[in-house]
Amino acid sequence: MEKAYLSMVTPGTLEVHAGMNFLATGIKDKLKDKAVKTVWDLLSDVFSLREGDLIYFWVYEQGEEEDFLGTWKVEGEPYFDTVAKCCGSSSHCVPGNYPFRVQLNPQGLWKDPLPGDYVYSQPQHIGFLWPIIGKKSLNRGKSLTSLPPYGDSILNGIYSTFQKVSSTWNTRGYNTQACQNNYAPGNNAVKLDKTWFYGLFQNNNTGSASSLRGQSISSINISQLPVMSSKDPNLFVVEKALEAWFSMFIDKPEMDHFWNQLSQRIGINFNKNNILWFSNYHPLTITGKNVDFIVLFKKNNHCHLVLVELKREHLTRSIFEQASQEVETYERIARNLFTPLLLKNCNDLEFHTVIVGGYPKDGRKNGSKQEIKNHPRYKNHVVFGYNIGPSGNPPVSFDLV
Predict the structure, then answer these.
(1) Structural domain of residue 158, as residue ranges?
(2) Domain of life of the organism in this record (predicted)?
(3) In this structure, how many other beta carbons lie within 10 angstroms of the beta carbon of residue 177?
(4) How many CA atoms lie within 13 A of 263 on its CB side?
(5) What pTM does this model have?
(6) Omega into 168 within 30° of 0, i.e. cis?
(7) Quick one: which of 3, 22, 40, 1 has its CA closest to 229?
(8) Is residue 220 part of a domain?
(9) Could you tell me if residue 240 is inside a domain?
(10) How far is CA 122 from CA 5, 126, 346, in A?
């Protein structure tokens, strides 16, 4: 099953994205105090994309009506490309500060845009709508918003019902054929692939969350992006970098050992080939609760949903306790949200909760593995510690605590 995403654009930039067949994410203003976190947040989103995933453009502008337009497919891996792409005028440009870009392939585009008001008036699809409503109500629209499993079928179904009544709605028109040149990365574009990610570790790129403060995102050297903490190179520089590792490698050989250990602990074979869907920082409610990572397995029509809570720091008793409380809350919400949606397509559904943090340091106060294992909540979750070895293959490993 292809995953489905909404890519937020303005009416002006839609014509560039749709005409040149690519999506771009970035940030308009200069990077602030949590600059490195912001960059890794954007990377985590684009790293979650896989070739063949579906993209629907979410046309949004403050104070204006909004629309949805589909469908495109992801084609290839992301690039860091700071060359502005324009179509006709300066008001129709994707500027260089939206440098994380992915090529797309149009797939039977909708005849009419789908009005947001019509989409939001479908209460029977509340589980599907939750991520969209949550982003909208909190004014936290991300450039990429992951839809729940089978989200493409639901959105296409809503569009089919809309076509029957579209003559009674006033819809805006968009010129998606204004640009006829397909996007191609510039000469200095950097391919954001496994080689690039490994290179950050091999070059010992260390720093802090504020290392890039004050810079525009288009001016940074993406190959010198901090990935490890300068205070403790055994830790990621920010939690979002750990999330980005999951996004890029969750279904790749780099995570085989992780899934094998989880399989042994739970007694269920979690094979990456049976991953049906996954999402990073997935919204569960309109109150801003997001699970760091979520993975859906399906085999022989039996489904398993794995909820992952990530912590950058070395795990201690107190950090474990906080993480366990958070992931238990997410599980309660996820049961209400996903069970009705998934039981339409699965015979049964099991939930599993996982906590991942820096491997515990023995000898520090409240920090030993044994203190975590003695915690009354320990038996409710599977706990992993990560280790970073810059010259390792892979440079990040995970072991049970």
Answers:
(1) 4-168
(2) Archaea
(3) 10
(4) 12
(5) 0.95
(6) no
(7) 40
(8) no
(9) no
(10) 19, 7, 23
